[in-house]
Automatic annotation (TrEMBL):
<dbReference type="InterPro" id="IPR009078">
    <property type="entry name" value="Ferritin-like_SF"/>
</dbReference>
<protein>
    <recommendedName>
        <fullName>DUF2383 domain-containing protein</fullName>
    </recommendedName>
</protein>
<dbReference type="InterPro" id="IPR019052">
    <property type="entry name" value="DUF2383"/>
</dbReference>
<dbReference type="Pfam" id="PF09537">
    <property type="entry name" value="DUF2383"/>
</dbReference>
<dbReference type="InterPro" id="IPR012347">
    <property type="entry name" value="Ferritin-like"/>
</dbReference>
<dbReference type="InterPro" id="IPR011971">
    <property type="entry name" value="CHP02284"/>
</dbReference>
<feature type="domain" description="DUF2383">
    <location>
        <begin position="7"/>
        <end position="115"/>
    </location>
</feature>
């Protein structure tokens, strides 16, 4: 497997998690009853769509097939969120906690991609690091929202 193929694999896998992020925030925007939170989740959904678009564009430039699916784990997680939120009555704090968990998964996915830094072109490493920083900022903001909801 050459470096280009390896980079494509890494990005395709990462993009499944970014697509999970899109679905997760779409889901959160539907569940929340707080208009400010709903607006924030929609912004994050759009940010995630932009990230996915950047990754797919890079994959295409390298000659790979774009990735539009989500992970099996993400589908299971959203199903579990549905059940949990039905029981909890769409508790705002539970929605925030679910999003925090989602960002923790995103951080792991970005770190996994960056573990292959040596095999990735420099522009790809920069894109992944930039997205990882945005995810980290989101994680910090969600933690603040969680503390405020206590």
């Amino acid at each position: 497997m050459n470096n280009n193929e390896r980079a494509i694999d890494v990005l395709q896998e990462l993009n499944q998690f970014v697509n999970d992020r899109i679905e997760g925030y779409k889901h959160a925007a539907e569940l929340t009853k707080d208009p400010a939170h709903q607006s924030y989740y929609k912004d994050l959904m759009n940010q995630s769509r932009q990230f996915s678009s950047e990754i797919n564009s890079t994959i295409s430039q390298m000659g790979g097939n774009t990735q539009n699916s989500t992970t099996a784990k993400g589908k299971l997680y959203r199903g579990w969120m549905d059940v949990k939120n039905t029981i909890a009555g769409n508790d705002e704090e539970e929605v925030i906690k679910s999003n925090i968990t989602g960002e923790e998964w995103a951080q792991k996915a970005y770190n996994d991609a960056l573990d292959h830094r040596a095999e990735l072109p420099q522009n790809v490493v920069q894109m992944v690091e930039k997205q990882k920083q945005a995810s980290m900022a989101t994680y910090e903001r969600l933690r603040q929202m969680d503390r405020a909801a206590d």
